[in-house]
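REQUEST FORM: STRUCTURE PREDICTION
Request ID: SP-0412
Submitted by: Lab K.M.
Chain count: 1
Length (residues): 455
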Amino acid sequence: MDHIWRQKHVWRREEAQDGWQVERLYAQSYCTTCREIRGLRALGKRRRCHMHIQAKPENVALETLPVKQWRSLDILIRALHQNRLQLLETLGTWLETGWIEVEETLMNQEWQIERVRLAAQAAARQAEQQRAVQTERERYAVRQMSTMLEGWQHDYQVALGLHQGEADLLAVLTHIGQLLDEQTKALAAGTCVPLPGTAHRKGGTTHQRWIAILRGLVNLLAYPRIEYERVFSATWLGGSKVFMRDRTAIAQFLSIPGGFERIGLVKHTPVVYCWGAWQATMMTYTIDGRAGVPFVSITADTIAQLQHVCVHADQLIVIENQTVFEMMLHPTSRQESTLYLFGAGFPGHAERALVALWLHAKPDLPWFIWTDCDIGGVHIQQHWYDWAMRMHLPSPQPYGWTQRALLAWQPVGVPLTADERKQLKNMAHPLAQMLYACGYTVEQEAMMSGHMMRS
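STATUS: Completed
RESULT:
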């Protein structure tokens, strides 16, 4: 029978004392055919230490060690930013507590540490401690968030009744309601669940902040008002600057058309920009709509106190884009008989309140909404129209949205994308169908670069 010889290395335990397990490496030859073994040759020695578990060392670097995989000293030197001497001292301290296992090699009659890993028994204890801490943390979070959410269903029902005619706010409110309902059910079961679409640790500080913010937004929608962000933050988050940590992320998460300003949450007092032939009084003062250059700015607080509003203009144009608004108010561009208002995209409370005052003062005042000729513009046009209908005011007309005007702007238009075509095709609004038919969008700035148009 022909022999086929192979060589393998095996470790054999030789002795054990004081927590050390000593093994010797042997090289042996064996036949793959008959399994005969010959030529057993002793090589190097190694030993591992398994000490009884004591108190955990106060060193966060211990968390970097894995349980199953060994780490070489060179890797640990880089990870812990220590030199070899410092590292050996650190490992000696950890070894005495039983939280690590070390593997040493006998070289020149001296044992030298080669590799390190977290002791399995220590890792199990650590995992159990972490589970206990997490359980207590979650219980605390459940208590905290349960308190935060008290009364939210009542505010939610109030807000639903107020915003039935406002599709954009109703969509935001419904979304928040679904999120809080899911949280409430989980809390009632004694646990908590992260908000869908987020990477928050359940019951963590970020999770709790977001729940508090959502609760505060429901209250703001139930009782509409102008609320400063710092006041909102202090009320619902316990600190005037806390809201700023999550402002951008939660705005993207909720996708509120017009941003937080749309629901009355503002950084500073909202200011409305306008110009034209109108007047009003506030206490002993007279407000003149043509007294400012190039326009008049009025705070939301002032608008709420205006009396004896009188409008002399022949028409009102609400302009979505501030750049175009300022260009229109150039002395060579503006019309003395026209009242101009910067609509700030999706308008806030202040812009709508001022328009309402003007239209109540002059019910037969024709008014127009000038937006980009795109999907966003269609939504803004719809928003103004829906608001006017709810307030029993004359309906606005789109400014410049005609087949003739769109044809004239074709050289500066941008072809519709496939996604835009799909969205427009599914929208019932006549302006959406007009855009779909013409096949391109036009921004206000591009319109201004061509020629001035009339409604």
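NOTES: The chain has three domains: 5-122, 132-266, 271-401.
Reviewed by: T.R.
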